[in-house]
Design a protein that fits this description.
The complex is a heterodimer of chains A (347) and B (94). With 347 residues, chain A is α/β, with parallel strands linked by helices. Chain A is 39% helix and 9% strand. The radius of gyration of chain B is 14 Å and the shape is globular. Classes of the chains: A alpha/beta (347), B alpha+beta (94). The structure holds zinc ion (ZN). Chain A: Pfam families: Peptidase_M4, Peptidase_M4_C.
Chain lengths: 347, 94
């Protein structure tokens, strides 16, 4: 049984529901009603009022676009089917499984919607297509052009990243523009990295904190697309230039391109998470990851700024004995100065 | 500057975003009347004033400029005449 979904996507409903201007009042009310009636809902509802999950087994469907752009394409591997022998299709299938394992085993979540939604993916999208994306319904992976990029399923962190975009849509619904968009990007990187660390059993100290290892061909001077530990250092290449990510608010990039620099400024919250994880030590998904996950499920505005998100993580961290560490990390990346940092609320 | 070598039409495509967040740029310059005549129908066919749709996460963002016209488009909106123009610029410039 497929999970029933309305025609209006949940992120749009959440966006409309959040509108406060009077002239949108009717639409906003209708959207709030639609959200509250949905069998599948985001994080704003309290966990205890969640309806019982009846059928929440892991279900995956991997399709092949056969170098076209029609989605989803031809089904090549459903849940429990044997390996196809096609590397990209099998990597997507296994990557969905590894991503599901992190969220299910560590956070008790059953799929992106927490109601067993089937994980849909398509490989071999387009011709020499240098990208992977989440289209609001499914994950899509290109083969790469063979000169700069190879296939986008080659990195588990990329698969985890795309699936996390789906999770964000079902929870905080962060608008994909400016600071809320950079948070959306960063959270996708955070859980992309955690999926990889969880699968490899790595601690925060053992992890590379790199996103997209193995995507570049040997022609490119660079080990990955992004570095959470040291934003701006993942590649430095004659053709591509240098990794432009900032790791501190002093270097925040103001731009209209890339939806307001969402793939650039994500380096700042990425670094904050890395600091929290390495400061706490051990497996990053256990405390640092849980704080970020619970923040996503909390009362976060779809247009949250870095500072609002930081405040929300500190509030969640109070329950995990980690508020000082989290507060210190956001200070270190310049989201707060010492004087603007919220004081501890535990006293 | 020599009037003969002033480009009559410059079409530029700037692609940002995508999972990698890499910026790519392609550009064609039509310096002769014949060249410009070949490009104009492709330019004119595009709905320059249409409202841009929302982007999906990791979709490419295309900025298309043709002389004083300009449009910013999410990847999902680059189809039909936009796709023809963008592909023609990328193919000519590559
Ligand atoms: Zn992304």
């Amino acid at each position: 049984m497929e999970t029933i979904r309305g025609i209006v996507p949940p992120y749009l409903l959440r966006h409309i529901a959040g509108l406060e201007e009077d002239r949108f009042a009717t639409a906003a009310e209708a959207a709030r009603r639609a959200l509250s009636e949905r069998p599948v809902h985001g994080g704003h509802a309290h966990p205890s009022v969640r309806p019982p999950v009846v059928d929440a087994e892991l279900r995956r469907k991997v399709h092949d676009a056969e170098n076209g752009t029609d989605l989803p394409g031809r089904l090549v591997r459903g849940e429990g089917d044997p390996a196809t022998g096609d590397v990209a299709a099998d990597e997507a299938y296994d990557g969905f499984g590894a991503t599901d394992a992190l969220f299910r085993q560590q956070y008790g979540r059953t799929s992106m919607d927490d109601a067993g939604l089937t994980l849909l993916g398509t490989v071999h999208y387009g011709v020499a297509y240098d990208n992977a994306f989440w289209d609001g319904t499914q994950m899509v992976f290109g083969d790469g052009d063979g000169e700069i990029f190879g296939r986008f399923t080659a990195s588990l962190s990329v698969i985890g990243h795309e699936l996390t975009h789906g999770l964000i849509e079902y929870t905080a619904g962060l608008v994909y523009r400016d600071q809320s968009g950079a948070l959306n990007e960063s959270i996708a990187d955070v859980f992309g990295a955690l999926v990889e660390q969880h699968a490899a059993g790595q601690t925060a100290d053992e992890a590379s904190w790199l996103i997209g290892v193995g995507l570049f061909t040997d022609e490119v001077e660079g080990e990955a697309l992004r570095s959470m530990a040291a934003p701006g250092t993942a590649y430095d290449d004659d053709v591509l230039g240098k990794d432009p990510q900032p790791g501190h608010m002093d270097d925040f990039v103001e731009t209209t391109q890339d939806n307001g620099g969402v793939h650039l400024n994500s380096g700042i919250p990425n670094k904050a998470f890395h600091l929290v994880a390495t400061e706490l030590g051990g497996h990053a998904w256990e405390v640092a990851g849980r704080i970020w996950y619970e923040t996503l499920l909390g009362d976060l505005s779809p247009r949250a700024t870095f500072e609002q998100f930081a405040q929300a993580t500190v509030a969640v961290a109070e329950n995990h004995d980690a508020a000082d560490v989290v507060r210190g990390a956001w200070q270190a990346v310049g989201v707060w100065t010492n004087s603007t940092s919220p004081s501890s609320s535990s006293g | 500057m020599d009037e003969l070598h002033q480009p009559l039409l410059v079409v530029r495509v700037i692609r940002t975003g995508g999972f990698a967040g890499l910026r790519r740029q392609w550009e064609v310059e039509a310096t002769s009347e014949d060249e410009a005549q070949a490009w104009w129908p492709l330019v004119e066919a595009c709905p320059w004033d249409a409202t841009p749709a929302d982007n999906h996460p990791d979709g490419f963002v295309y900025e298309v400029q043709a002389n004083d016209r300009e449009a910013t488009l999410p990847e999902r909106q680059v189809d039909g005449p936009w796709r023809e123009l963008v592909d023609a610029v990328v193919d000519s410039a590559s």
